[in-house]
Automatic annotation (TrEMBL):
Family: Belongs to the SNAP family.
Subcellular location: Golgi apparatus; Membrane
Membrane-topology descriptor: Peripheral membrane protein
One Pfam short name: SNAP
GO BP field: intracellular protein transport; vesicle-mediated transport
PANTHER family per record: GAMMA-SOLUBLE NSF ATTACHMENT PROTEIN (PTHR13768:SF2), SOLUBLE NSF ATTACHMENT PROTEIN SNAP (PTHR13768)
Name of the featured protein: Gamma-soluble NSF attachment protein
Function: Required for vesicular transport between the endoplasmic reticulum and the Golgi apparatus.
A GO molecular-function descriptor: syntaxin binding
Length: 309
């Protein structure tokens, strides 16, 4: 079966080469037909599990579609070449082909398709190279943002934010979440803004920046429905407990379902949050029963407890 498919692929390549030949009666190569034959050859090679040869055929298909000014089809062929690289576990090369395809989609005037290709590339590379996945998700978000597709842009930016948290690049994560939140605010998706506020607070507290965390909550009071919501109440309690070094309050908020069932990377921030000072609650000063002079008297008793020498 495999041998038959390989022979079939070579027959299509021979036909493609014939389409490219010129003569006295045929002045221009038939790029469209050649691309079609290379596409058929690529499929035959793929079915025979000859992924390297299939990749080469897809690249040739893309080349002749480009010659024919058919950029969309050229980009599709390059994406398929990338998939062949993926099947051979050669992920960096796979991503290169898909990124090149995305640029062709943009050039062709189909930016949505470009962004979706970058998103797919991000998913492919994420298990082996998180930093590259972050870059791809950011690029995809930027393409959608340029097209005023803010919901899609925010979703892709969200993927990037979570991976930045996973890598502990918290300064970048804080900026990314802030941008996400503004996008959701602009499209009036206020409940998601509430969740982004929680994510902001957790990131800032892990950055040891209480002031920034507090500012995020205060700014969110202007978002319709936030004040008095369970998200708002939880964050107010968390910040108060953190500021007062009350470990019990912080643990109670961080282990609540509201935070426990967030995206996994944020849930981990919640369960690993430590209060400053070792978690010992600040005690309010109290006046002993002996009145204002009692502390001094106690100090004198201690000083001479063993008697005079």
């Amino acid at each position: 079966m495999a041998a038959q498919k390989i022979n079939e692929a070579h027959e299509h390549i021979a036909k493609a080469e014939k389409c490219l030949k010129t003569s006295l009666t045929k002045w221009k190569p038939d790029y469209d037909s050649a691309a079609s034959e290379y596409s058929k050859a690529a499929v035959a090679f793929k079915n025979a599990k000859q992924f390297e040869q299939a990749k080469d055929a897809y690249v040739k298909e893309a080349e002749y579609h480009t010659e024919n000014k058919a950029l969309f089809h050229a980009a599709k062929a390059l994406e398929q070449a990338g998939m062949m690289m993926k099947d051979m576990k050669r992920m960096p090369e796979a991503i290169q082909y898909i990124e090149k395809a995305s640029m062709m989609y943009v050039e062709n005037g189909t930016p949505d398709t470009a962004a979706m290709a970058l998103d797919r590339a991000g998913k492919l590379i994420e298990p082996v190279n998180v930093e590259k996945a972050i870059d791809l998700y950011k690029k995809a978000a930027s393409v959608f943002e340029n097209e005023d597709r803010l919901r899609q842009a925010a979703e892709l930016l969200g993927k990037s934010s979570r991976l930045l948290v996973r890598l502990r690049r918290l300064d970048e994560a804080a900026a990314s979440i802030h941008k996400e939140k503004n996008m959701y605010k602009e499209i009036e998706n206020y409940p998601t803004c509430f969740k982004k506020t929680i994510a902001q607070v957790l990131v800032h507290l892990h950055r040891n920046d209480f002031v920034a965390a507090d500012k995020c909550v205060r700014e969110s009071y202007s978002i319709p429905g936030f004040s008095g919501s369970e998200d708002c109440v939880a964050m107010e309690q968390l910040l108060q407990g953190y500021d007062e070094q009350d470990e019990d309050v912080v643990n109670r908020v961080c282990s609540s379902p509201l935070l426990k069932y967030m995206d996994n990377d944020y849930a981990k921030l919640a369960v690993t949050l430590k209060v400053p000072g070792g978690g010992k609650k600040k005690k309010s000063p109290t006046v002993p029963q002996g009145g204002a002079g009692a502390p001094a008297a106690a100090e004198e008793d201690d000083e001479y407890e063993g008697g005079l020498c």
